[in-house]
Amino acid sequence: MEGSEMNEGQGPESTNGVFLRFIVQERQHIHGMLVYDWLLDTARQMNVRGGSALRVIAGYGRHRVLHESHFIELQGELPIEVDFIASEQEAEALLARVRAEKLSLFYVKFPAQFGIAGQGEP
Question: Residue 85 is inside which H or E element, if any?
Answer without folding.
Answer: strand 79-86
